[in-house]
UniProtKB/TrEMBL annotation, chains A, B, C:
Organism of derivation: Athene cunicularia
Pathway the protein acts in: Lipid metabolism; fatty acid beta-oxidation
SUPFAM superfamilies, per the entry: ClpP/crotonase
Subcellular location: Mitochondrion matrix
This protein's UniProt keywords: Acetylation, Fatty acid metabolism, Isomerase, Lipid metabolism, Mitochondrion, Transit peptide
Catalysed reaction, written as an equation: (2E)-tetradecenoyl-CoA = (3Z)-tetradecenoyl-CoA; a (3E)-enoyl-CoA = a 4-saturated (2E)-enoyl-CoA; (3Z)-hexenoyl-CoA = (2E)-hexenoyl-CoA; (3Z)-decenoyl-CoA = (2E)-decenoyl-CoA
EC number: 5.3.3.8
Name under which the protein is recorded: Enoyl-CoA delta isomerase 1, mitochondrial
Recorded family membership: Belongs to the enoyl-CoA hydratase/isomerase family.
Record GO cellular component, one term: mitochondrial matrix
Gene3D superfamilies hit by this protein: 2-enoyl-CoA Hydratase, Chain A, domain 1, 6.10.250.170
Subunit description: Homotrimer.
């Protein structure tokens, strides 16, 4: 599955909705046992949640957007398919989350590519299920420090911290991702799926049990004037950067 | 305690029953404060649960066998004694579990010896308490990947992942195990035991609270025709290998 | 904040009470966003809880002392400020706990300085919230082994285990601590504080929910004749060492 939503594969409501529909089709297709996520846009895997969806919109819109983000995570983290992230560009915030939900993460060893849950840098807070997914991958201490600092880690640092499993040169990425997929698909589906579910169930169940509460928290938080102001400033900064 | 049940120290119902009686005696013997587990069979620590106990038998037999496996784990993981695994051979599945329950794991640095919870390779799933013991030792991420792939790790890889604490040449194994035991026995029993219990209680309590449910899950799963077929094929493969 | 209670910055009831008052003032001072903890006493950060408070006193005194220790931990681990430990000397038991509650730990790379939760060496047991703080920092396996052995780790070993984040030469310590503080203060307070709280809330809530029970456990345990005897022997040993 190739993300192709230039300029930066940001996760807009439309993008996420289409993504979830695509995932559901694959999940229900008995002939599809695994999926590799990568980007068709140079230098960026995904820039994460689209800030324009969280800025200057109605409470209803924020709620709808957040339910879509939850849905995407639930489908990805709970997928029965083998999921491999072939990270061929930077991957902040929600982009990092997509990689974190996969069974295996391969990243191009380009010193310019960064990855991390940098929400704190924007003045916002990653929800508990982003955090849980992160802790399951890198452990409590690394997550605590990285989340508080909103760190974006270079590929080599991400590898050292266990945030990605393997680094490869860009030309080897697709070949490597296919080899990893073949290795995981060699296992009997049934045993692999039950094992995956056993490992992730507690964290998945936690969001399912608190889903509406989490939507309300998000809507209340994001609609605060101070947060809106931070996001507007951040978007201004991004625009200036581009010029 | 030397495992001597050739050819591969497989954990049959008889073996486990005797093992538990032996453990209970040591546990109740005030003069015995620690135990070292090792193998008297060359090249194998223990091959894990005896597949013949799980194949072509009655539901009652499966239930009896599983209760014995639970009992063994509860005694080992909850032992008040200092327990050291001197792993002098390969140690898949249940053999790895015995090592994981110990306070310290030393393995012979022989590139032919492997260790891991490889249940998924056989088309079966490690129960949640195998998983909990594994996560407590190597962390969530390593466990998730290793369990899904049913990985058997070489001694050096097992050391790198934290699955074993130390590697030694075969000739040094008993000497090293004795030295580790002496180090642990130097602590006041009471404080060490309370600390051990504090670290392991949550995981032990979880099985105790769900013991009969876990037996039923196992019996239902293992008696499925598809699983029985997988196990028969696996046994055929093992027989062919031997010839 | 410089600990200055010679000879070894031991955490007496008076020291802890004053420390908590100081912390509360800083916490309520809107101009104070961070605090660096270090020692004004050469070669020692803090020797931990004052054993004289736990030996030969009344049950009421033990209870009062323990409530103060709980209070100190709740304030430190739950602080909204950025907290940095500049560990410029040995830091056993309660001294290590103070470091563990911080957002970042820098230690002087002096082979004579040791750090760890060595309670088991004294025949006593670290309470569950010391353990939880430790597990959150170094993971379950390292904590299990280190707590059972009552290990005091050299600075370099502590760094390897993740018990401290960074080692520096003594002359660079204050400069480094200030640089780390500046890095953490660069984040928006609100987002950083909410993130910190999200990471630590489960562990903080656990003590709050069991606070009186934990006091009773401590009082019952510490007032046992066998424990009192261990502590008296330990104090005798310390006195002899000094002569």
């Amino acid at each position: 599955m190739k993300f192709k939503s230039p300029p930066v594969n940001s996760l807009s409501l439309d993008f996420i909705t289409e993504f979830c529909i695509g995932l559901e089709k694959l999940e229900n297709n008995r002939e599809c046992r695994g999926v590799i996520f990568t980007s068709a846009v140079p230098n960026i895997f995904s820039s994460g949640l689209d800030i324009t969806e969280m800025c200057g919109k109605s409470m209803e819109h924020y709620a709808e957007f957040w339910r879509a983000v939850q849905e995407m995570w639930l489908r990805l983290y709970g997928s029965n398919m083998v999921t491999v992230a072939a990270v061929n560009g930077s991957s902040p915030a929600g982009g990092c989350l997509i990689a974190l939900t996969c069974d295996y993460r391969i990243m191009v060893e380009n010193p310019k590519f960064v990855i991390g849950l940098n929400e704190a840098q924007l003045g916002i807070v990653a929800p508990f299920w982003f955090k849980d997914t992160f802790v399951n991958t890198v452990g409590h201490r690394v997550a605590e420090r990285s989340l508080q600092l909103g760190s974006l880690h270079s590929a080599s640092e991400a590898h050292r911290l266990g945030l990605v499993d393997e680094l490869v040169p860009e030309v080897k990425l697709q070949e490597k991702a296919a080899a990893v997929m073949a290795q995981w698909l060699a296992l009997p589906d049934h045993a692999r799926q039950l094992t995956k579910s056993m490992m992730r169930k507690a964290v998945l169940d936690r969001l399912v049990a608190h889903r509406e509460e989490d939507v309300q928290n998000f809507v209340n938080f994001i609609s605060k004037e101070s947060i809106q102001k931070s996001l507007r400033m951040y978007m201004e900064m991004l625009k200036k950067k581009k010029r």
